[in-house]
Structure formats: structure tokens, C-alpha cells
């Protein structure tokens, strides 16, 4: 094994480990705060947006290279804001509802529900024509949904209110992701993760702040004073996750990202049971195993699709190059013919001169 291969493997483990660690820490941290320490979901989410905005500005000031599309976004800020307003509102809704759901559901149950996002995204994408419907994809997603159903049915502490809050949060998240994919990519303004966050967080802050003020509760100030340090650490954890995700998307292969994502989900479930004491039934363990199989099959299919698309694009490019070369050769021949008359043309010209 070459040094470069070892370097890639080491980098994958380092970035992947950071992604798993920051993600698992954040979810357990959120659950810890929402369960009694700071049970104010609107204030909690608004505080996240304030900190994320400030940290984005600081990071951009000292490390602008981490924001490769920021200059383009700033030059077209009106168009970016036009698209970002609905995305920011959906993001605010997603964060608030998911944090609120943690007051009623176990962290492991929330994670089981999130695995169904892949099926929800596919259904919504088919509805708006972003993806082609195939029964092969439906069969794979049926495996995922079967696992989700087993996990939900086997939940020892099932709470309908928490379940509805979490599903609503996931719908908002999936709609946001689809709108982002359509308008940001289709309009030629595809942004990197950190630039996207830098624009999104202050927009998300506005509706959250309005709702927070309207529903202000007397115990908020006391809870802020008692937990301000934990809230700052939690916000730093959330921002660190954004940075790690941006690095992962840039440095890791699609295969590695899918595999590490599955490992991350498993570790979150395990740590929630160990740290939070969440009960996990045997049926849920079986259901999660079924989900993992479905996610791996789906990831493999998407990777093969991407590979096929890349091969088709390469083939089209090669065909275009051949066509361009053929046209250029024809043009050169035509120019040569115009510049140097053929023997027959010269003979006719000479005969005309003699006449």
C-alpha cells in the first residue's frame, strides 16, 4: 500500500470520526438541555441562530478560503436572498419542531424516524419531477420503511405528540432540501455548505425571534442565567458540525460518506441508550438492522447512478470533441481550397488568359 493510499485512509478515518463525534455529541447535548435544563425550544433554537451567525462572520473574517462561493453570493445577494427566505423559514421550522420533539420522544426513537427521510425525499422529488419513479427504487425504500415501522411499533415510550412533531420537522427539512437543490443549483448559484449557512442562519433568526417574543415565558431568564455556559458550548458544537460536514463533502468519497453516515446513526442510537438511558426493544434492534440494510442498498444504487451519469457525460464530451475536430478539419480543408486553386482551376484560368 502506497503512502498516498495510507494518507487517504487516515484522512477518511479522521474526518469521519470527527463527523460521528460532533453529530452524536450535539444530539445528546440537545436532549440533555431540552429535558428539564432548558425546556424552551424557541429560545434554544433562536440562540443557536444568533451564535451560528456570529461564528460564521468570525470564521469568514479569519478563514475566507473556507467560503469559496461567498464572493459570488455577495455579488448576487438580492437573488440569493430571494431564494434563501423560504429556505430560512423552513430551516427554522425544522429546528424548532425537532428540538420540541425531544421533550416527548427518546433520542433513539427520533433517530429511527429520521432514517425515513430518504423515502420522504424520494416521494417529494417524484411529485415535482426531480427524480424518475422506478419500482426498483420503491423496493429498496420499502426495506427502509419496513425497518422504520418496526422501530416505531416497538417503541416502549411512544408519544403521539412527539411523533407528529418529529414527522413535521422531517417534512420541513425535506422540502427545504428539495427547494435548495432546485433553486440554488438550477439557477447557477450553487453555494458551499458554510456560505449557505452564513446566509441561512440570520434569515432563520427573524421568524424564530418573532415567535420567541410572542410566547416569552417568565422562567426563561432564570434558565438562561443558570445554563448560559452550556448553551454556548452547545452552539459551538452545532457550528463545529457544520464545519465538519463541509470538510466531509469536500474531502471524502461518496462511498465513505454513506458508510460513515450509517455508522454515525448506529453510534447515536447506542450512545442515547448509554447516556440518556433510552430503552431500546428487541424489535427496534431488528428494525434498525433492516434500516441499515436498506440505506446501504440505497447508497450503493445512488453511487452507481452517479457513476453511470459521469460515464455518460464523459462519452458525450468525447463525442463532442470528435465532432468539433471533424468540423475544424473540414473548415481547414475549405480554407486550403480557397487559398490554393486546384490544377483544373489553374488550367481553366490559363486557357482564359490565352484567349
TrEMBL record:
InterPro entries in UniProt: EmrE-like, Sugar_P_trans_dom, TPT_transporter
GO cellular component: membrane
Membrane-topology descriptor: Multi-pass membrane protein
Name of this chain's protein: Probable sugar phosphate/phosphate translocator At4g32390
Residues spanning the membrane: 12-29, 41-60, 80-98, 118-136, 193-216, 228-247, 254-274, 286-303
Location(s), subcellular: Membrane
Keywords linked to the UniProt accession: Membrane, Transmembrane, Transmembrane helix
The species this protein was found in: Cladocopium goreaui
Domain Sugar phosphate transporter: from-to ranges: 22-298
Amino acid at each position: 500500500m502506497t503512502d498516498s493510499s495510507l494518507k487517504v485512509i487516515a484522512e477518511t478515518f479522521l474526518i469521519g470520526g470527527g463527523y460521528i463525534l460532533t453529530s452524536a455529541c450535539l444530539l445528546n447535548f440537545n436532549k440533555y438541555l431540552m429535558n428539564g435544563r432548558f425546556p424552551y425550544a424557541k429560545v434554544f433554537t433562536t440562540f443557536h441562530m444568533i451564535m451560528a451567525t456570529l461564528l460564521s462572520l468570525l470564521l469568514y473574517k479569519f478563514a475566507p478560503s473556507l467560503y469559496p462561493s461567498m464572493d459570488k453570493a455577495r455579488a448576487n445577494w438580492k437573488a440569493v436572498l430571494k431564494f434563501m427566505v423560504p429556505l430560512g423559514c423552513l430551516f427554522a421550522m425544522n429546528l424548532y419542531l425537532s428540538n420540541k420533539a425531544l421533550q416527548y420522544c427518546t433520542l433513539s426513537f427520533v433517530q429511527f424516524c429520521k432514517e425515513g427521510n430518504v423515502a420522504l425525499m424520494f416521494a417529494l422529488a417524484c411529485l415535482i419531477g426531480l427524480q424518475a419513479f422506478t419500482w426498483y427504487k420503491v423496493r429498496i425504500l420499502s426495506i427502509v420503511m419496513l425497518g422504520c415501522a418496526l422501530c416505531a411499533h416497538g417503541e416502549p415510550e411512544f408519544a403521539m405528540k412527539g411523533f407528529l412533531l418529529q414527522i413535521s420537522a422531517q417534512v420541513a427539512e425535506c422540502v427545504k432540501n428539495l427547494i435548495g437543490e432546485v433553486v440554488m443549483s438550477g439557477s447557477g448559484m450553487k453555494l458551499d455548505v458554510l456560505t449557505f449557512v452564513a446566509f441561512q442562519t440570520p434569515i432563520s433568526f427573524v421568524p424564530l425571534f418573532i415567535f420567541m417574543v410572542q410566547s416569552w415565558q417568565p422562567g426563561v431568564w432564570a434558565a438562561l442565567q443558570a445554563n448560559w455556559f452550556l448553551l454556548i458550548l452547545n452552539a459551538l458544537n452545532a457550528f463545529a458540525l457544520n464545519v465538519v460536514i463541509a470538510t466531509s463533502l469536500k474531502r471524502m468519497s461518496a462511498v465513505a460518506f454513506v458508510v460513515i453516515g450509517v455508522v454515525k446513526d448506529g453510534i447515536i442510537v447506542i450512545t442515547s441508550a448509554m447516556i440518556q438511558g433510552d430503552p431500546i426493544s428487541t424489535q427496534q434492534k431488528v428494525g434498525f438492522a433492516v434500516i441499515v440494510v436498506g440505506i446501504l442498498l440505497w447508497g450503493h444504487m445512488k453511487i452507481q447512478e452517479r457513476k453511470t451519469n459521469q460515464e455518460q457525460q464523459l462519452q458525450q464530451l468525447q463525442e463532442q470533441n470528435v465532432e468539433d475536430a471533424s468540423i475544424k478539419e473540414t473548415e481547414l480543408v475549405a480554407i486550403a481550397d480557397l487559398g490554393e486553386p486546384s490544377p483544373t482551376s489553374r488550367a481553366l484560368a490559363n486557357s482564359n488568359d490565352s484567349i
